[in-house]
Amino acid sequence: MIGWPTGMAIHLAVAPVDFRKAFDGLCIEIVEVLERDPLSGELFVFRNRAGDKLKALYWDGQGFVMIYKRLEKGRFKWPHHADGAAEGEVRLSRSQLQALFEGIDWRRLEMPPRCLATATG
Fold first, then answer.
1. What is the pTM of this model?
2. Checking DSSP bridges between strand 89-92 and strand 10-13, what pairing results, if any?
3. What DSSP string runs through 31-56?
4. CA 101 to chain centre
5. In the prediction, which pLDDT does 84 show?
6. If we measure between CA atoms, which residue out of 52, 54, 56, 51 comes closest to residue 2?
7. Nearest partner of 43 among 87, 93, 111, judged by Cα
8. Cα of 105 vs its chain's centroid, Å
9. How far apart are CA 56 and CA 114, in angstroms?
């Protein structure tokens, strides 16, 4: 798995896209559907209608990088509008993105409560 820069915003497009789209077609989706800037350095993740393929796109400062993954069995876990997802996207953490790419249900990942420990001497 690629090590994403700390603080990189990760956007998961809720609606499936036509996977014949390549760099330019996905940039149009980013601008028109997600209302974001594809040159922002943020990561944008899309799925096909069947839910067994992912494409991720980001601008690294020199050009676009596209990552493509196909599951041989099963489907990627994806939010629905009924799940409280925004009209076009859901924001993911780096851990959730890693889980998504591993085929794990990233929606069930929970952050542990913060420990407010103090050192005593």
1. 0.80
2. antiparallel
3. HHTS---TTSS-EEEEE-TTSSEEEE
4. 9
5. 46
6. 56
7. 93
8. 13
9. 31
Residue written as token pair 């996905």: 26
- Number of Cβ within 10 Å of residue 14's Cβ equals 20
Neighbours of 98 (CB within 10 A): 16
Q: Is 46 exposed, middle or buried (0-12, 13-18, 19+ CB in 10 A)?
A: buried
| Ramachandran category for residue 106: left, alpha or beta (phi over 0 → left; psi -120 to 50 → alpha) | alpha
Q: What is the pLDDT of residue 82?
A: 45
Q: pLDDT 10s digit of each residue in the chain, 121 long?
A: 566 677 889 999 999 999 999 999 999 999 999 999 999 999 999 999 999 999 999 999 999 999 999 999 989 988 875 444 446 788 888 888 888 888 888 877 666 677 777 777 5
User: Is residue 96 left, alpha or beta, with left meaning phi > 0 and alpha meaning psi from -120 to 50?
Assistant: alpha
> Closest by alpha carbon to 11, among 87, 110, 82?
87
